[in-house]
Structure formats: C-alpha cells, structure tokens
Design brief:
homodimer, alpha/beta, 3 domains, 6-stranded parallel β-sheet, 14 helices
C-alpha cells in the first residue's frame, strides 16, 4: 500500500493556540503565502479577533474539531500538558494522512503521549522552535520571529520520513534553521540551555526577595545585570510547571552539574584575599574561560545582517529629529538597516544607534550627519 | 578654621580612567556644560584620542599627577585594586580641599584604603553608579548612560558633609538618582543584585561548557533566554576578580542564601510528576512568587519616558523604508519618541516597533501608516 503522507505539499494548516509561537507561525505562513489556507483556534476571543485583523490566519474556528477538518498539517501551540485533551477533542476529525506537529518545550514525554493517543494513519512530528519574546501571547507574535531561529525536530524510528520532510519544508520556508535531534538529546540539551537558566533565575529572584526583607532598598540597586539575568523568571508559571513535570530527570541532573560548577567557583572565591595574589589565578582562569565560552555563543539575532556597521549619534530631543535624520540619510542615498534609541533625557537630548549594511555607508553617514547632529561616533 | 571643602562649586574635574563609566561621566559633564573644565587621563592612547574627538573631555593629560593639578574633584574610574597605586601617583599633586570620589563596585574595602592612603586635607566620597552597557570601554560611553540610574554614595561618619553635597550635586546634574548608603549596606546589597548574578551566570556557562563535551550541538540551542541569563558572564575577568577579592564575605554569604533557594526549588521539582498533581502546587507557588517579584523590579530605563505608547509595523525590506515612515509621521506632525527594528528578513521585510509619548499620537500613527505599511498593530 502506498504511504499516504504528504504525497502532495501541505496546503491547509490548522493552528491550535494563537499565542506567541502559534501566532508568529500563522503570520509567516499567511502573509508569506507559504500555504493556501491557515485556520486558527484559540479559547480567547481577543486572540481570535487580533489574529484576523493582523493577517495571522485566513479564518478562525471556535470549535477545535472543525478547525482541523481537512487540514494537511495541525500545529499544536499550547502548553504540553494540554495535548492529551486536544488530541481527545480532534482525533475523530483528522482525516487519514494528516500530519500533526507541536512546538512544545519537552519532547520525550510528548512523543510517548502522542504515540499512545493519536489514531492510526496520523503522523506525528515533534518540534520545538528555539525562539521567544518579552511580549507574550499574540501581541508578541511577529512574522519574522522564527527567522534564523533553530527549529528542532525530534523524529524517532517510528516517525514517518515523508512527514518529517513536510514539516521541515514548512519551517525552512518560514525562515527557521531545522535541526534533527532524538527526543532525549533534545530534552537533555534544553535542560541546560533553557530549563536550568529558568530555575536559576527563579532562585536568584527568591534570594533577592529574602534579602530585601532586611535591606529594603536592594531591589532599587538592581541594574541591567540583575534584570537581564532574571528576565526569564517572569515567564508563565503554568508553562514552567509543565516543563518541570515532563522533563524532571534531565532537569534535576542538570541542576546537579550546575551545583558542582558553583561549588568550584565558591571555593575559588573563598581562596581569594584582598591583600594578596594567593589563589586568585584559579578564579581568574574560571572567569576568563566562562567569558570566552559566552562570547562564542552566537549573538541575539534579529534575523539581521551579517556584520552590521554602526554609528552612534547624540542629538537634541526635539520633535521630528528622527524623521529629520532619516530624511538626511535618505537624500544621500544611504539605507538604514537598523535603528535604536539607546537613551533619552526628555527635553534635553538622546543617543541613537544606526546600523548600515556596508562600511562605506556608515562612513558616509558620519559625514552627512556630522553637519546636523551634535556628535557622531563610529563604533 | 574654616572648612576648605567645596566652598565654591566644582569647576574643574579630573577623570582617571576613560572607560565606560569615566567616559560617560566625562561626556555628561563636558557636553552638558555642568563644569568648566574636564581633564582626562587614561593609559590607552586610543581612549585619549576618542575622548577628545567625542567631546568627552576638554583636554587630556598623559601624566596622572598633572591631570589632577588644580582639580576641584578627582573621579577614579578604574578597577578598585588600582586605587592604591593611583593615590600614590597623585597624592602630592592634590591641593588641600580637593574632593576625590570613585565609581568602584565595592565600598568597605575602598573606604578603608582611602582613609589610610589619602593625605590630610583631601576629602574622599565613595560612589557607585548602578549602570552598565554591553559595549565596553569608551566606545560604550554615552552622555545619557547615567540618566535616571541609581548612584550610590557611601559616606561614613568621617566623611566631610560638604564633600558629600558637592558630589551629590554633580551626579544629580548628570541625571542620576543619588542614594546614600553605608559602605557595608552597599556591599551587602550589591553582592545580591550584582555579584551573585555574575557568579551564577559564570556557573551556568561552565555547566553548558561541560555538557557541550558530550552534546556538541547544545550551544546552538541557546536562545534568548540563555543568552540574557548569562550576558554578564562576558564581563572583564580582572574587574570581577577585584570584586571577589574586595567583597568576599558578603558574596560568600549571598551564595549561601542562593544555594538554599535552589535547594528548595530542586526539592519541589523532584516532587513533581508528569502523571499527577501531587506536589506541583508548591512549585507553582514558588514560580508565581518569583514572577511577581521580578515584574515589580523597575524596567530597564533608557532614561525614557513614562508610559510610552507603541505600535508595531510590518514593512517590506526596501531601501529608504524607515526614512519614508519617518517622513510620513513627520508630515502628519507626529513625533517619534522611540524606534527599534525588531526583526528583519533580508530582501523580504521586517517588523519595526515605534513608540510615541501620547496615546492619540499612536492612534493617529496607525491611521497614517496603514495606507503605506503592510500591517500596523497597536500594542
């Protein structure tokens, strides 16, 4: 008998859950015309109407089973612990040959569940895009969120090869970089790069909260370093409980590894004294090693731009100053590849970073802006 | 005898070390015309020439002793362990009545050293601005870096009151929010909000480095969460060794508190199972508490703007598109308060966040942009 999966390309996609990831996928598929039709389901009415007004989907359904009817691909983009009830609601509506995929943060548990729950004739491909945003839900959704993001697929030996290829093709079209890993490999790696940092950030916040009982001004002193290090601790507790439940053993193992690294560091700090050079070399080595490893991790991608060339301008805070600069650059034929306001003092001035694709553009920008901006600095 | 300190306002400032903080202070003082003259010293020739070309200082000196001659205020902006040798080099050149301050990360050790080393007639005021930047050194310096930043001063009972007031006045003029703490209070608070996060980030990076020996693709999966959580681990090892040396006891105490928070979290994770609701409530409570505490920490300030109103536009990636939008908004009399390119797909399109001071401006921006931009979304 012929394999029924993905003999034709995927034309109709149903997305269950129009949050950050589901919404971003929908926008990319709809606005990028990657498939013919995208149908969205969400429990939240506001998400549905926003999905329509922002061209995240072609149409919405208020009934999950109807949303998936005649879909070639169903994307589950809700917390992993909701999957069993979703499958229960949709399984009789899936026509044979439908591919189901997900975007959940843990994969071994998900693969096991789907194997048990999905009916014969439906192919499941586990997936996990490594992308996020500070803005949660569909309001944070962005057509370009997955651009250049690593998108992990976790087939096992039972996964239908044509289904893997079909999901891979869709995610490549969306701009993601697909990486195949086994479910267990995925779970152990994300335990380190995602789940451990979350729990560590939570413990840091809890420590501050404890200290703030005696030192009430301590939170005021939290500058960018503390805020960055603990940003993920503001994540959705329900999602993180799901992650802890479904990836417990790799997470506990990883916390053990972290504790050993911290112990080593603590003993090096304990050996340092302020009046000599006794054991500082060892601490210095660890800090230098960590810096080198950290610097080797690819930077936060906007999807942008190999080797952008930057200038920083200091300008007065007056109405129209950004528009004026953009006009000056436009008239000189210089294209702005990136722009960001770094800091502003109201009614005084601010600093703006502008990026260009080419070094010569940056150099020419310095020339043409020097006349009007107070100070231009090439970075 | 009359107190000689700061009877007149500070007119001449010498800055020893033109790095991120020294450079930013110099720019604010020079460009903001807060004092009459700013003299800069740095060992690095490139820093000196950049300081001159970016109006960070009025003039530079290649000899530290000459730099401080006739200064009303000397700002030490180098790693704390260099202070003793700096004081040795400048002390005979300081005229009586000069105020010396610093921007170092630890204060008890610094206060003790300065008390021992500075000659009679020189007032020391310990200081520590809570501000940083990803760009290091004078290239990261920004006239508005300290705008709205908390600036801690750590007087003790020996500190000359007029000197405290004089340094406070300067830092307020620079835009910082001055907070007085005892040296020990400062050291214990920064151990939690700054030194602990650094060491934790280092331990996280070391853990990833260990895991990457078996799972070579793990660093590829590090998305924004890991990068944010470990950003500070890329900091200068020499500065952090200095911090560990001079704030060892508060840091070790704080690591102990952190370890207890992590232990508690680990036991809650251990009690969670994927098939039930047994002990998940306790983990959920901790995660929710941490989220609430984290959300209550004031956001990263650009110096900007209470309650900015935002829209996100999805636009084609074509030359001049930013300039064109800025022109459209300018012609409609709408002022851009903030702008940032969120993501770009080269030769396809991108998403741009634009902020406005007033809600009506954001609403009108949606109207006028809807005609030209593909999609406008009000946040």
């Amino acid at each position: 008998m012929k394999q029924p999966f993905a003999l034709s390309p995927i034309k109709r996609v149903a997305i269950i859950g129009l949050g950050l990831i589901g919404g971003s996928l929908g926008m990319a598929l709809t606005q990028g015309r990657i498939v013919e039709e995208v149908i969205g389901f969400d429990q939240d009415e506001e998400a549905l109407s926003l999905a329509l007004s922002t061209q995240t989907v072609h149409r919405v359904e208020r009934n999950m089973a109807e949303a998936v009817q005649n879909a070639d691909l169903v994307i589950m983009a809700t917390p992993v612990c909701t999957y069993p009830s979703i499958v229960a609601a949709i399984k009789t509506s899936l026509r044979p040959g439908t591919i189901v995929t997900d975007v959940g943060s843990t994969k071994s548990w998900v693969m096991d569940q789907m194997k048990r729950l999905l009916p014969e004739g439906i192919a499941f491909v586990g997936g996990h895009p490594m992308a996020g945003s500070e803005k949660k839900g569909i309001r944070g959704a962005d057509r370009y969120l997955l651009e250049n993001a690593v998108y992990v697929l976790t087939p096992d030996r039972d996964t239908v090869p044509e289904a893997i290829d079909a999901v891979k093709a869709i995610m490549c079209a969306v701009g993601a970089r697909v990486l195949k890993l086994s479910p267990l490999e995925h779970d152990q790696m994300v335990a380190v790069v995602s789940h451990l940092p979350h729990m560590v950030a939570v413990a840091l916040v809890e420590t501050l909260s404890e200290v703030a009982k005696s030192y009430t001004q301590a939170p005021m002193l939290a500058a960018g370093g503390f805020r960055d290090t603990t940003r993920v601790a503001a994540g959705d507790p329900r999602m993180w409980v799901d992650i802890a439940k479904t990836n417990r053993e790799p997470l506990l193992h990883t916390i053990g590894l972290f504790r050993r690294a911290l112990d080593r560091l603590e003993s090096e700090i304990g050996g340092c004294s302020s009046d000599g050079t006794d054991q500082v070399a060892s601490l210095q080595n660890t800090l230098s090693h960590a810096r080198d490893v950290r610097l080797a991790i690819p930077g936060k991608a906007k999807g942008v731009l190999p080797g952008i060339h930057e200038v920083v301008v200091t300008v007065p805070d007056k109405p129209g100053v950004i528009g004026n600069m953009a006009r000056i650059l436009g008239e000189a034929g210089i294209n702005i590849a990136d722009i960001e306001i770094l800091r502003v003092r109201e009614r005084d001035g601010g600093t703006i970073r502008i990026g260009f694709y080419e070094a010569e553009e940056a150099d020419r920008a310095v020339e043409v802006l020097a006349a009007s901006a107070v100070i231009v600095k090439r970075l």
